């Protein structure tokens, strides 16, 4: 694969997450609860990625390694659960501002664990993204009327769990084929979702039939594609740049709200979107993709 494709994979993975908020809003509008939305999302998404995995090349791994990778998939489930909880007490604009803090949290995690000090270019890119996100969410025009400390706490937990998963995607299980690794991660996300939200809705056929169209869309864009794309790209770009690239989520979320929900954006929000795009480009230009081939080959041999 061309080196330029690795950042693109992470960028598209982040954009996939931007699709979710629109369909979560639509599902809530139909009267569904977070447990039904999260449960159907992870059931559908995990089934999709495992169906794909069945038709791909597999690598034999130990039961202990499998269990460890399942555990590493837990943050994928927690991110959705935390974010959907924040949406219960915050409006979408405020909730996404707190989720968007993954932009700097990812770099902080990389510094704490790997002692990788961010350069000035990366810090400037993060600043651009944070300024752009503040403008893009429309807070200046809409205010903080619906602010809730509880909702803010859930949003920050979502940002933290998302950043942890981004770091895991860049460091853990790089010797395992991306589709296989993604399928195992998805299974971990499904398990934690089922533990926190027992799937009692599955006993009601009418509810399952009604929620599944949303579950399929949310599963595809929230469970199947992002972990797969991150598994392909993150090991080569690293968690720090990876979180910058995944900020493509916010512009996509806003565009979806305009195209699907018919919401209006004020000029400042469009300026914010443009600043985010500039920040992503600035942070990525001149970045050298990490060469992990030899490292992966040695891991396979062991």
Automatic annotation (TrEMBL):
It comes from Cytobacillus stercorigallinarum. InterPro entries: AA-Vitamin_Transporters, EamA_dom, EmrE-like. Pfam families: EamA. It is a multi-pass membrane protein. Residues 8-136, 151-281 form the EamA domain. This is EamA family transporter. Its main location: membrane. The chain crosses the membrane at residues 39-56, 68-86, 92-113, 125-144, 150-170, 182-202, 214-232, 239-261, 267-285. SUPFAM superfamilies: Multidrug resistance efflux transporter EmrE (SSF103481). The keyword Membrane applies. Keywords: Membrane, Transmembrane, Transmembrane helix.
